[in-house]
Amino acid sequence: GGWEQIPQQAYQLTLGNTSPAVVQLKRRLISSGDMPLVEYANDVFDAETDRAVRKFQARHGLVVTGQIDEPTWYAMNVPAETRLQQLYLNYTRVQNMAAKLNPRYVVVNIPAATIEAVNDGMVEQRHTAVVGRVDRATPIMASNIHQINFNPYWHVPKSLVRQDLTKYMLQNPNYLTEQNIFIYDGSGNKIDPQTINWANISDREVNYMYRQEPGAANSMGHCKINFYNPYDCYLHDTPGKELFGENARFHSSGCVRVDNVNKLVNWLLRDNGDWDQFKVDSTFDSLQRLDVEVKAKVPIHTTYITAWANRQGTVSFRDDVYKFDEQGKVSFG
Question: Whole domain around residue 176: which residue ranges?
Answer without folding.
Answer: 154-212
